[in-house]
Amino acid sequence: MTREEMLDFVQEVLGRVSVPDAVADLSEERSAFVRFGQERITQNMDTFRRALRLWVGDGCRKAEYVSHRIEGKAIPSIVKAAEDLLHTASEDPEYMPPAEGGQAYPVIDAYDEATALAEPGPRMSAAAGAMEAARRSGAEAAGLTGMYRETTAMATSTGNLCFHDATEAVFTMTVHAGGGSSYRSLVSTRWSGMPVDSSIEEVVEEALADSEPDDFPGGEMDLVLEPQAVADLVPYLLWSMNARTSDEGITVFAGREGREVTGGNFTLSSRLGGPVPGRPFDSDGLACADQVWIDGGVLRTLQCDRFWARKTGRPAVPGPGCYSVDGGEGTADDLVARTPRCLRIRRFWYIRFVDQKSLELTGMTRDGVFLCENGTCRPVRDFRWNWKPLELFSRIEALGASERKGFVSAPPMLLRRVKV
What we know:
This protein has ten helices and 19 strands.
């Protein structure tokens, strides 16, 4: 459907609603992916989904109905089904109407037509290239390559009308070579914006270099975290940066707004038009905006839903789905060269909370850990760690250039004297 057709449809739906509050959200999604492993293509899929989400409310109760019948003659029955659900719904003590009218939505460049309309060829070629590069080196590759498009049109009973179109290209690859492995995740709005070919060669070389890892003595040492490792930790900060749970004393950020929570060279922000494009509105039509969450180590903003904002007098701050850790210049190799001895970590996995109030986490390293001493690096075995990200980010000595990793843009980091 075109932009105009989608906007007309959601407005026609609202025109049929008889209760005071309503939001009609029409979305289209295309997912086209190729999975590969064991020297073959294991899955090739290209799916399309169109759905209408309609929520209706009477000031104290709310009901939501989802339909895949996107045609004018279906609108009366869709609205009736939603309103029938409302009649049997329980009262909601945290009821909120749609976002108030007059919302100003930012225009975000998050769409690439070539990616949205991509044929299978580029995806298949990338998968075949990864498997062939690994095979030539006696290794084995597995991963996923694909394109994704989501288009959303929304109308609210308070008079808001919004539209957003976004594409995403993805390439992930894991290579196993003997006892070693490596991994890469590339994400971009545009397929043409990803260095797929060069990344394939790099990952194979890294996996070969990681073979036959040794044990290493623990203790206190410098760490170099690659961008993926930093990006693996950031979501745990975000889950804790919630105004309600912080006000209730559940998270590490309770009572710490305006105070230092990390070292002075750590800044976490959301820029809707930045390296990770954001979403201009939330599910109730509230406009999103650029935010600085931690500024030079100082906690500035917490995400806050509209109910908690009304109850506490805080501003409502929705999560825009895009986050960036400020970086510097250079690569992880450059950071390794700045210290005579360090542990270089590619990524983390199986991360879990140990203590949410102190934001202590436990997890494992994965796909490459190297002990670097006086210009040489040798692979060492993966290990379990218990660290607090806020303490890690208080030990930053230097930052490299940021890279997009999923919904987070993160730089490599040199951390001084961390207990391993």
